[in-house]
């Protein structure tokens, strides 16, 4: 083989670990998160306590669970905005079945079955009929929310079975330390980090979102991948909904209103590109945590919840703008 | 390690049966008969060249083979067995691997992962074996002498290396038939050597190669048999030794090359209308040149040489680091296309679909976009005047369209290009920059575009033509400027230019 | 050679005004009207028709702007929050100055500045408009409670203020007239001016538009501000209608508007869409609402049916385009 004098062919020096780290979006997010934690622990003495920190994990768990699902859908190049309505809706079969059978597993099965049906419908509309995912899931969002109102007559369905397990699910703590919802969300997060990294299917999701044409040429079934992503997203929204209704102790007809916006914001803040193909679940988890710590910390400072909304909105814009700025600079 | 696997695999290949037979293949697109009754037969362990001009039907044929398009009629047999190929997955499972000219890699993934994209090695539990992917990729690169870090992010590599990654991928796959579509279009000469050694390795394993190109020297070096297509029809299939350059060109073009390049004007000797000095951008270094009214200045360079970047900088689209550009004596504000257009410079882009056309809009709106001011009174449009002006250009340029309301996406490439040219001429320019003006345009329309460019120069415009096609460079230009790695490496007059001189400067 | 172009008959007037998607909507609208009037003959009464038009007014005003925004390949999800906030501002300023003119201007100016903010974030900071305007929505939802904890009551009792929403000119309610004027103005701009052409061009292909010498960012900024102004105007009408500045008003309004625009055939990818389609879609959605009420159906169907209609209409459009391509 002739030795090449050509510069373009010279092996590139491996980038230094530091440079690689600095390029990673997760590191920037982690720094943001730590800065937030340091700031709040200086500002409020009750912030940096194990109790409060685990509390935040518990509060973050709903957005974490649903966020994993939405992130996967967005990575595959689509979007799912029906998750808020769905998270609210699964409480109805859950509580109704529990009230009838006094069985939590049956209730959960009913809730997940509803989520599965919605996921299959979303997936079919988007992947096989080819309807734009924002439109399709906006449509199902309306239909589900309307269905909730219709079924409940715009009232909550109280839990009359008073199952201890049901209460514990959303409010109990594992070894009296980590809230169960936090535990569940971390397990789900770990499973999907593993899937995205170690299973061929995870890689197919990135490929399909990054460049559907290339993915097709590589022999991937683009439609199937998108379909499954939307089903997963619905199932995870269902899990979030189950946790939510345990925390609320009933099926509340307005539960999950606006949840989709929160989750999409966290996902994008976590560095997942709306164009698809880019992002990591670690980033998403950090995005969720940043927003949760922010709202917890601002609450500790006795700032009105309204301020929390304002600050959160501002931070989302700043984070995405910064990310965009960084990307443009790298290109130059 | 891989070679062992491959030899075992190759042992299964029966060399007495054709690896691939395509018989009577036909394909029709709306308004175009792309392929008509085409036959092709590949032998195991041989390199079969497929030649033809742009629009001859080469890419349609290989896209049918790759499962991107479905054929309308005809049969495909692989190793003697009739098969149906409907999806890319069908093609892969039949052992057909296509290396496309457009890069088919996921930019976010590492080089090693892209090598194994089609078939991740997994453990018994179904987990991806990342270490094996990395090691096998490194070993593969070592063996073919390709120096690239397998852990590099693919999108960070230069285009030529990405192309090599694609080619290396063919080695890692279990393919019995490897199709390469213009594999050398962006490679350096060293890389071309590397490619040829990859091809020889593949053929020694009994793999059949379909090599698509229009570069004669490559064909004579690597091919065993040559099939020529023209206008979607099969023209000839002969052993390489039966051909000379002349017979190949005759088969491909089917007429005199002189007809393609009409020349209605003398050498351009007008005033200097474009002056560039000390121009540097992210991709360009120290560019300086002038262009005169009435001349065609050809700019040649291999892929990645900076042709398109220069074009974009000239019209104020890309930001400039240093240097000045003057159009008709007035300096151009950097990074502002609006003043560039108002000074009288416009760009006919290389990539019509993403940078030129508004696909969803009608022909009329596409054409009049840059000159709406002429038809407007206080921003209100006089559609009657606009329509008649557009109609005039449609007639003059012989744009084939059922109506001015037709969405431009339904027009053929050549007609789209005419509409885009008209967009600028309607506006009235001093300088037009054309970047690969005949890419994806069929032969007939090509000569019309050439005639139009020639006429523009005759009418006193300065034409700066970026191209990687040697015939159109030599056929149209008054002066030729060669670029390599973002710099100008040579400038020569029409009379002193030869293929060798130009290529030498382009590789420099 | 000229025969290829000139021999083709000019498209019919109707076809020129309406695309195929509009025809689908007209059919849907006609079918709806027939079906509803069978069940409830009072559907065609003057009062009911006027009521439907009045219902359309607010959505149509904002949807006109949103159509332009979507054609330019951007979107604004903050219109609901901004609607409520501008209503509050308009009522508050009118209370303080006793001038409907100043109050109205304040409401419109507030909406416009929200649009300006969105536009700057999208065009200068290059934040995706979906995310940027979700963030703006959050900021406004928080901000409105910081501005006022409870509804701002009407303390000025100026007749003109309430007339804005409840008055009539002849048989036609004032908000319908305002909506019609806004619609016509937008229609003319989009169809007959350079600005309209540029909006389509930028949405269809921003790179190509820039290379053709258009200043795409400035144009988009303008459309954001214009949409914001219309939101301010709608906020003023809403405050007048409810006779208070209600911080909780406008929840879900953004989805209603976007649903209408999308149903009207405007593409989320930009470059495609018409105001006629938006008008028809607003009518379809409001006729459905009205039908559910006068047929005495459960009002919660008012969410479900539009959801089905949006998905169904998009799918029909898709099927039609596929068969066109063949």
From TrEMBL, chain A:
Domain of life: Bacteria
CDD domains from the UniProt entry: TM_PBP1_transp_AraH_like
Keyword Nuclease carried by entry: no
Pfam families: BPD_transp_2
Transmembrane segments: 27-44, 56-74, 106-127, 134-152, 177-196, 225-245, 251-274, 281-301, 307-325
Transmembrane is among the record's keywords: yes
Subcellular location, record wording: Cell membrane
UniProtKB keywords: Cell membrane, Membrane, Transmembrane, Transmembrane helix
A cellular component annotation (GO) from this entry: plasma membrane
InterPro entries: ABC_transp_permease (IPR001851)
Primary site of residence: membrane
GO molecular function: transmembrane transporter activity
Protein topology in the membrane: Multi-pass membrane protein
Annotated protein name in UniProt: ABC transporter permease
Natural source organism: Arsenicitalea aurantiaca
Automatic annotation (TrEMBL), chain B:
Subcellular location field: Cell membrane
Keyword hit for Translocase: yes
Topology term for the membrane: Peripheral membrane protein
Domain ABC transporter: 20-256, 267-507
Domain of life, source organism: Bacteria
Keyword field contains Ribonucleoprotein: no
GO cellular component terms listed in the entry, alphabetical order: plasma membrane
Recorded GO MF terms: ATP binding; ATP hydrolysis activity
Keywords, ordered alphabetically: ATP-binding, Cell membrane, Membrane, Nucleotide-binding, Repeat, Sugar transport, Translocase, Transport
Matching Pfam families: ABC_tran (PF00005)
Family, similarity comment: Belongs to the ABC transporter superfamily.
Name under which the protein is recorded: Sugar ABC transporter ATP-binding protein
Lineage: Bacteria, Pseudomonadati, Pseudomonadota, Alphaproteobacteria, Hyphomicrobiales
Automatic annotation (TrEMBL), chain C:
Keyword flag Transmembrane: yes
Entry's transmembrane regions: 23-44, 56-73, 100-122, 129-148, 168-190, 221-242, 275-295
Compartment(s) where it occurs, according to its Swiss-Prot or TrEMBL record: Cell membrane
MF-aspect GO terms: transmembrane transporter activity
Entry GO terms, CC: plasma membrane
Membrane topology (UniProt): Multi-pass membrane protein
UniProt entry tagged with the keyword Repeat: no
Protein's name according to its UniProt entry: ABC transporter permease
Taxonomy of the source species: Bacteria, Pseudomonadati, Pseudomonadota, Alphaproteobacteria, Hyphomicrobiales
Domain of life assignment: Bacteria
PANTHER family in the cross-refs: ABC TRANSPORTER PERMEASE PROTEIN YPHD-RELATED (PTHR32196:SF21), ABC TRANSPORTER PERMEASE PROTEIN YPHD-RELATED-RELATED (PTHR32196)
Keywords: Cell inner membrane, Cell membrane, Membrane, Transmembrane, Transmembrane helix, Transport
């Amino acid at each position: 083989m002739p030795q090449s004098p050509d510069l373009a062919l010279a092996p590139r020096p491996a980038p230094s670990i530091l440079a690689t780290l600095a390029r990673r979006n997760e590191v920037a997010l982690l720094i943001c998160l730590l800065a937030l934690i340091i700031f709040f622990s200086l500002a409020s003495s009750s912030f940096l306590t194990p109790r409060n920190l685990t509390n935040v994990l518990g509060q973050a768990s709903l957005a974490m669970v649903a966020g994993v699902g939405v992130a996967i859908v967005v990575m595959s190049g689509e979007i799912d905005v029906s998750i808020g309505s769905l998270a609210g809706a699964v409480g109805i079969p859950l509580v109704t079945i529990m009230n009838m059978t006094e069985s939590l597993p049956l209730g959960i099965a009913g809730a997940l079955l509803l989520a599965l049906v919605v996921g299959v419908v979303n997936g079919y509309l988007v992947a096989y009929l080819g309807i734009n995912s924002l439109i399709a899931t906006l449509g199902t969002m309306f239909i589900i929310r309307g269905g909730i109102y219709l079924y409940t007559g715009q009232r909550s369905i109280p839990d009359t079975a008073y199952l201890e397990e049901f209460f514990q699910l959303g409010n109990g703590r594992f070894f009296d330390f980590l809230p169960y919802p936090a535990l569940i969300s971390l397990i789900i997060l770990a499973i999907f980090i593993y899937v995205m990294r170690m299973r061929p299917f995870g890689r197919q999701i990135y490929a399909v979102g990054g460049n559907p044409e290339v993915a097709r040429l590589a022999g991937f079934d683009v439609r199937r991948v998108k379909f499954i992503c939307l089903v997963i997203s619905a199932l995870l929204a269902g899990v979030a909904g189950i946790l939510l209704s345990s925390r609320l102790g009933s099926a509340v007809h307005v539960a999950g209103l606006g949840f989709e916006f929160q989750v999409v914001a966290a996902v994008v803040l976590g560095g997942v590109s709306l164009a698809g193909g880019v992002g990591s679940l670690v980033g998403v988890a950090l995005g969720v945590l940043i927003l949760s710590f922010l709202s917890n910390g601002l609450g500790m400072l006795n700032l009105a919840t309204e301020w929390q909304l304002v600050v959160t909105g501002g931070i989302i814009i700043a984070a995405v703008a910064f990310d965009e700025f960084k990307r443009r600079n790298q290109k130059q | 390690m891989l070679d062992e696997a491959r030899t075992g695999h190759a042992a299964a290949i029966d060399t007495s049966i054709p690896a691939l037979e395509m018989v009577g293949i036909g394909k029709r697109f709306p308004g175009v008969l792309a392929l008509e009754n085409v036959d092709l037969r590949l032998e195991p362990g041989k390199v079969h060249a497929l030649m033809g001009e742009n629009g001859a039907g080469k890419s349609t044929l290989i896209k049918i083979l790759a499962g991107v398009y479905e054929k309308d009629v005809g049969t495909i047999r692989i190793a003697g067995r009739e098969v149906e190929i409907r999806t890319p997955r069908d093609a892969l499972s039949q052992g057909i691997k296509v290396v496309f000219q457009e890069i088919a890699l996921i930019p976010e993934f590492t080089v090693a992962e892209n090598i194994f994209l089609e078939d991740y090695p997994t453990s018994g539990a179904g987990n991806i074996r990342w270490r094996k992917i990395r090691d096998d990729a490194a070993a593969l690169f070592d063996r073919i002498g390709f120096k690239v870090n397998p852990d590099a992010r693919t999108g960070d590599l230069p285009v030529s290396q990405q192309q090599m990654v694609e080619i290396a991928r063919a080695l890692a796959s279990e393919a019995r038939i490897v199709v390469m579509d213009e594999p050398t279009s962006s490679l350096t000469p060293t890389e071309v050597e590397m490619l040829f050694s990859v091809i020889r390795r593949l053929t020694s394993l009994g793999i059949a190669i379909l090599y698509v190109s229009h570069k004669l020297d490559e064909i004579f070096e690597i091919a065993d048999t040559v099939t020529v297509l023209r206008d979607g029809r099969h023209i000839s299939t002969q052993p390489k030794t039966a051909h000379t350059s002349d017979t190949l060109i005759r088969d491909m073009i089917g007429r005199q090359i002189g007809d393609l390049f009409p020349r209605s004007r003398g050498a351009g000797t007008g005033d200097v209308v474009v002056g560039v000095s000390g121009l540097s951008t992210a991709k360009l270094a120290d560019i300086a040149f002038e262009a005169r009214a009435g001349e065609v200045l050809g700019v040649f360079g291999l892929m990645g040489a900076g042709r398109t970047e220069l074009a974009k900088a000239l019209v104020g689209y890309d930001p400039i680091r240093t240097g000045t550009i003057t159009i008709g004596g007035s300096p151009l504000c950097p990074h502002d296309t609006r003043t560039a257009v108002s000074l009288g410079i416009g760009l006919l882009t290389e990539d019509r679909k993403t940078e030129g056309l508004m696909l969803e809009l009608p022909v009329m709106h596409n054409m009049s976009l840059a000159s709406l001011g002429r038809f407007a009174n206080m921003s209100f449009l006089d559609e009657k005047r606009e329509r008649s002006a557009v109609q005039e250009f449609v007639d003059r340029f012989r744009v084939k369209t059922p109506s001015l309301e037709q969405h431009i996406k339904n027009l053929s490439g050549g007609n789209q290009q005419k509409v885009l040219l008209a967009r600028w001429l309607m506006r009235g320019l001093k300088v037009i920059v054309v970047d690969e003006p005949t890419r994806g345009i069929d032969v007939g329309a090509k000569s019309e575009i050439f005639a139009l460019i020639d006429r523009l120069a005759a009418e006193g415009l300065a034409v700066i033509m970026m191209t990687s096609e040697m015939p159109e460079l030599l056929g149209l230009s008054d002066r030729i400027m060669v670029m390599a790695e973002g710099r100008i490496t040579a400038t020569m007059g029409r009379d002193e230019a030869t293929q060798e001189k130009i290529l030498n400067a382009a590789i420099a | 050679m000229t025969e290829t172009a000139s021999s083709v008959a000019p498209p019919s007037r109707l076809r020129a005004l309406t695309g195929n998607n509009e025809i689908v909507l007209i059919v849907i609208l006609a079918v709806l009207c027939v079906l509803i009037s069978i069940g409830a003959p009072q559907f065609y009464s003057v009062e009911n028709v006027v009521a439907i038009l009045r219902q359309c007014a607010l959505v149509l005003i904002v949807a006109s702007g949103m159509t332009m925004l979507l054609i330019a390949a951007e979107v604004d999800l903050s219109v609901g929050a901004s609607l409520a906030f501008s209503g509050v501002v308009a009522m508050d300023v009118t209370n303080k100055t006793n001038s409907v003119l100043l109050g109205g201007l304040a409401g419109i100016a507030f909406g416009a500045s929200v649009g300006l903010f969105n536009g700057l974030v999208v065009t200068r900071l290059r934040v995706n408009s979906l995310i940027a305007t979700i963030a703006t929505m959050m900021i406004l939802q928080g901000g409105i409670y910081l501005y006022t904890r409870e509804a701002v009551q009407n303390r000025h009792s100026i007749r003109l203020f309430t007339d804005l929403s409840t008055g009539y000119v002849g048989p036609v309610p004032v908000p319908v007239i305002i909506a019609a004027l806004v619609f016509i103005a937008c229609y003319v701009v989009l169809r007959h001016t350079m600005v309209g052409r540029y909006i389509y061009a930028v949405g269809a292909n921003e790179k190509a538009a820039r290379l053709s010498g258009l200043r795409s960012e400035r144009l988009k900024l303008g459309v954001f501000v214009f949409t914001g102004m219309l939101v301010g105007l709608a906020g003023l009408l809403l405050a007048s209608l409810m006779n208070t500045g209600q911080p909780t008003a406008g929840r879900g309004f953004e989805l209603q508007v976007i649903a209408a625009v999308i149903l009207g055939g405007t593409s989320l990818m930009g470059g495609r869409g018409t105001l006629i389609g938006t008008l028809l879609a607003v009518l379809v959605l409001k006729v459905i609402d009205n039908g559910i009420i006068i047929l005495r159906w459960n009002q919660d169907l008012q969410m479900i049916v539009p959801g089905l209609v949006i998905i169904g209409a998009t799918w029909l459009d898709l099927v039609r385009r596929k068969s066109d391509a063949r």
